[in-house]
Amino acid sequence: MGNSGGMAVARATVEELREFAAEAGCAGLDADADLGGGWAAVYCADQPGGLAPALARRTGAPVFTVDHLDSDVGFVDAATFSGGRWKALLNRDTAEDYEIPVDRFPVEPALAGALDWAADAGLTADREGIRAALTGSEAFAEDLADRLLGALGLAPAAESA
Fold first, then answer.
1. CB neighbours of 5 closer than 8 A, spacing ≥ 6?
2. How far is residue 58's CA from residue 20's CA, in Å, rounded to a whole number?
3. Which of 32, 61, 41, 43 lies closest to 6 in space, CA to CA?
4. What is the mean pLDDT of residues 36-51?
5. Within 10 A of 161 (CB to CB), how many other CB atoms are there?
6. How far is it, in rounded angstroms, from Cα 72 to Cα 1?
7. 16-43 burial by CB neighbour count: b if 16+ within 10 A, else e?
8. In whole angstroms, what is the distance from residue 133 CA to residue 15 CA?
């Protein structure tokens, strides 16, 4: 059985992001990571809907979240403080096996939203890297989430307990 938790990434310290995520309803905060450049990630067992915009309002910065379904599929939700938001689905082929309607997660709007999000975050994004992560397939959706973070201009980091 794979991971069914989530991850939130924001421009904040690890301590701030842990506090903000807990306040926003993340349950089971079990790990975190300093991504460098003022960015942090937290990992939780249960992630509430609407976490990205809630954390963006709290941090005043862009936020990227992904909620995993048994490590097979990832649901991305990203938001900016100014109200921009984009959603994406990771591991589309596997999502179809779960009968998740992939047409509700079109790639082109997600790509455009991701590029705008990265620009708002002051990051240098890789358009084709983002497209590859949004359309790619991996054994674990977490690997696609890491590829997507890298393409957005953030280097993923190993979790620490």
1. 28, 30, 43, 44, 45, 46, 47, 67, 68
2. 7
3. 43
4. 89
5. 6
6. 10
7. ebbebbeebebeebeebbebeeebbbbb
8. 29
**Which positions ≥6 away from 138 have C-beta within 8 Å?**
91, 144, 147
Q: What does the chain come to in residues?
A: 161
Tokens 């054994």, located at residue: 139
Q: What is the pLDDT of residues 85-144, one digit of tens each?
A: 999 999 999 999 999 999 999 999 999 999 999 999 999 999 999 999 999 999 999 999
Q: What is the pLDDT of residues 18-40, one digit of tens each?
A: 999 999 888 888 889 999 899 99
